[in-house]
Amino acid sequence: MSAPAPSPLAIVDAEPLPRQEEVLTEPALAFVAELHRRFTPRRDELLARRAERRAEIARTSSLDFLPETAAIRADDSWRVAPCPPALQDRRVEITGPTDRKMTINALNSGARVWLADFEDASAPTWENVVLGQVNLSDAYTRNIDFTDERSGKSYALKDADELATVVMRPRGWHLNERHLQVDGVPVPGALVDFGLYFFHNAQRLLDLGKGPYFYLPKTESHLEARLWNDVFVFAQDYIGIPQGTVRATVLIETITAAYEMEEILYELRDHASGLNAGRWDYLFSIVKNFRDGGAKFVLPDRNAVTMTAPFMRAYTELLVRTCHKRGAHAIGGMAAFIPSRRDAEVNKVAFEKVRADKDREAGDGFDGSWVAHPDLVPIAMESFDKVLGDRPNQKDRLREDVHVEAADLIAIDSLEARPTYPGLINAVQVGIRYIEAWLRGLGAVAIFNLMEDAATAEISRSQIWQWINAGVEFENGEHATPELARKVAAEELANIRAEIGEEAFAAGHWQQAHDLLLEVSLDEDYADFLTLPAYEQLKG
Ligand SMILES: CC(=O)SCCNC(=O)CCNC(=O)[C@H](O)C(C)(C)COP(=O)(O)OP(=O)(O)OC[C@H]1O[C@@H](n2cnc3c(N)ncnc32)[C@H](O)[C@@H]1OP(=O)(O)O
Ligand SMILES: O=CC(=O)O
Questions:
Q1: Contact by Cβ (8 Å): 530, 454
Q2: Potential cystine with 457: which of 304, 434, 450, 467 (Cβ 3.0-4.6 Å)?
Q3: What is this structure's pTM?
Q4: Directed axis angle between helix 344-364 and helix 377-388, to 10°?
Q5: CA distance 388 to 384
Q6: 189-207 vs 222-239: helix axis angle to the nearest 10?
Q7: Catalytic residue check, 38
Q8: Residue-range domains of the chain with CATH
Q9: Each residue of 230-280: pLDDT tens digit?
Q10: Could you tell me the distance, in angstroms and rounded to a whole number, from the CA of residue 296 to the centre of ligand 2?
């Protein structure tokens, strides 16, 4: 008797979208279903391991390099695969969501790379998930030019040799895509985003002289990197392209991954092209993991933690050293200051702050860095041009002077700043405003002239949780308590209502955002990710 046919992947509870049939083709869905069958069980095991490790951190309040992988770190002989030409020069990378306008603007921005984001800059509505894929395919076939009906402005791609190389960021391992299910089980969003993109574009990209390149977010261990590597090996065979075609840049943006940088590169060595210092999620991860570690681990206001804090320098310098030792690119992170074309003073501050950040990164040995806005591309370019000149990167700068001990990465108490009452107000303001936008399908927004996305919002809500649980006393004598957070949130909601007016208030999701922020900031049972309960409430 022949084996029963595998269950197909079903589209569940989703309104049909224009042109979805171009992305959700039968062969593409069969590929995603196969990824799910092969790899979701291991994904589930690895999520359970995350919980075990966090329980261990709660018990010990410490982390260390892994004894069982010491041989990988000690072996000086291995390197990651040679870098493909399209990724040699990554001196400036722009990030952003994949709606049609942003896709064209990012590709045309003058940056060498565009991080096309299905993760923190994108709220995972079904429309964003599917139409983001349509837009990327349209960009590769040069079928994307359009006129914005509201502004009347026309958008067209520049010549191919002027466009940024795309590095696509799928969702992290923890999020499911409820609209695609096998036997009633939702497929991990990571496999949906990766699978659809890879299936439709891998060969097309090779024909264009590029390749299927990925940023891997929120990795917590080298075992998770191994899972991605196995996904790549399977996917390359499945569509018949050579092994080693995929390239992945791993975001080192969890505190546990910072202790496994070498191991992560090792697991992915046939597919790795670099590591990125994702500072915002990194801070979130520190607060999350050490949230109940007592006063020693209490971070001050988010905006008071800069990249020059000793524990942040330990992290970034170790990242550069590790990458260059193994032949990989070291890519810097995101300064959150957003320029304004309408306000010269805001613009000036953003340019100054971003220039200082990029100068520091270029000086420290990074091979490139991120910006959030096209107007910041020339600023970052100047910083890296000064250091790199005609060289595509500075991987030859080995930074052997860098020595980081395990304790340096979590020496939070070396900071003098303390949490402040205005810091609490800001965390509440940003939390409500960001969650409201997310529930409308926007994953990245400018709030108070700073870029906010899922990672920065995670810091805000986690700090409220941590400060309350650590019984922080602010400079004005107030204590962080659930009652105080509720009072500040109620005031903020009233302020927003007065600011935007009744009609706009009623049209938005403000009360819902307020309630959700309080839930994820005050619940004793801390939610691992804000986007998990938020996804339950996301329409579409
Ligand atoms: C922690 C992390 O994970 S960081 C990575 C994730 N976060 C991101 O990627 C954020 C990316 N940045 C953004 O999304 C945007 O810059 C925002 C939301 C912060 C601000 O956007 P806006 O309010 O539209 O900015 P602004 O009005 O100044 O934009 C001016 C123009 O630049 C374009 N633009 C702004 N940012 C980007 C971008 N990142 N990519 C492409 N185009 C952009 C706008 O579309 C607009 O184009 P138009 O003149 O044709 O209409
Ligand atoms: O994803 C990047 C970060 O800073 O977080």
A1: yes
A2: 434
A3: 0.98
A4: 30
A5: 6
A6: 50
A7: no
A8: 20-408 (3.20.20.360), 418-537 (1.20.1220.12)
A9: 999 999 999 999 999 999 999 999 999 999 999 999 999 999 999 999 999
A10: 24
